[in-house]
Design goal:
Rossmann fold; 12 strands; six-stranded parallel beta sheet; single chain; alpha/beta; 2 domains; binds NADPH dihydro-nicotinamide-adenine-dinucleotide phosphate
Length: about 280
């Protein structure tokens, strides 16, 4: 066994994950001696795998689908943003030896929107989806002081639940896909529909002049959502590869106390994603 500090991303499936590559690039850039690998965890085994990994030189793990909720329950102590999200994507040892759960998804999205010069303050934002990813990004979006923030979801109860949970941070509008009205400066797709090449049916005319469209999913070609935005005349579109790199950078910082430059890593990843076909 190497003496390097050990890190991993835990999920199922996880073989497609870009996280080992991203963290290898960060480690090289920041001259950190560490190893990071992907571990596929069988259902029911998540707590045992985490405890075992962390007790053998493990310094931290990232958590992906479908274990973010289990990681939330497993953590001894939670950051405020993890508590808000109700989900954990990063685990590490706290200073007093407890297992600390954090969620870096929201920070990752906000940093990437900043890179793209997409403003949030005084903007009308429409968020598609009310799943785990939407939970992680809602509180930072509300804290950015948009004019309005509207959530649409197929299962409307989940959207109402989020509305209640976030009420102390600001007002959240809730609508159905058929019923959503108005013009928006930014539409964010936090559904998993693009994974299946599907764009949820939305009324025409929701994108205001100069609006931006952001899909949390990334791919080697425009996603179904990005294609829809193009068809609506939107010129400022992005997929979520930048968010993936930014949320990873935030985890890396928590573990190594060193903030990697993300732009060269994103450029490298973009080239690598373009060169492959399996890019979910
Ligand atoms: P969840 O399974 O928790 O939630 C899925 C969401 O998608 C739900 O709101 C669900 O609606 C909705 N949905 C699924 N299929 C459809 C459809 N055909 N039409 C309309 N809505 C649909 O997934 P996550 O929230 O964890 O992930 C969502 C996406 O975000 C994924 O593509 C994931 O890859 C991406 N992601 C990207 C990250 C990044 O760093 N770039 C980080 C985290 C996630 P309902 O509740 O009604 O079923």
């Amino acid at each position: 066994m190497s003496e390097s500090d050990q890190y991993a991303v835990l999920g199922n499936p996880v073989a497609h994950s870009r996280s080992p590559r991203i963290h290898a690039l960060f480690a090289l850039q920041c001259e950190q001696s560490m190893q990071y690998r992907a571990i596929c965890v069988e259902p029911g085994m998540f707590p045992a795998v985490v405890r075992d990994f962390m007790q053998r030189q493990g310094k931290g793990v990232n958590v992906t689908v479908p274990f973010k909720q289990e990681a939330f329950e497993l953590a001894d102590v939670l950051t405020e943003r993890a508590q808000r999200a109700g989900a954990v994507n990063t685990l590490l040892w706290s200073n007093d030896g407890r297992l600390l759960g954090d969620n870096t998804d929201g920070t990752g999205l906000l940093r990437d929107l900043q890179r793209l010069q997409i403003a949030l303050k005084n903007r009308r934002i429409l968020l598609l989806g009310a799943g785990g990813a939407a939970r992680g990004i809602l509180s930072p979006l509300l804290q950015a002081e948009p004019t309005s923030l509207t959530v649409v979801n197929r299962n409307i109860d989940k959207a109402h639940q989020l509305q209640q949970e976030m009420a102390d941070l600001g007002e959240l509008q809730v609508a159905t896909y058929e019923g959503v009205q108005g013009a928006f400066d930014l539409i964010i797709n936090a559904t998993s529909a693009s994974l299946h090449g599907i764009m949820p049916a939305l009324p025409e005319g929701l994108l205001a002049s100069g609006a931006a469209a952001y899909d949390l999913m990334y791919a080697d070609r425009p996603t179904a959502f990005m294609q829809w935005a193009t068809d609506q005349g939107c010129t400022l579109r992005s997929d979520g590869l930048g968010m993936l790199v930014e949320q990873a950078a935030e985890s890396f910082y928590l573990w190594r106390h060193c903030r990697p430059a993300t732009a060269p890593v994103l450029e490298q990843l973009r080239r690598e994603v373009a060169a492959t076909t399996d890019s979910t």
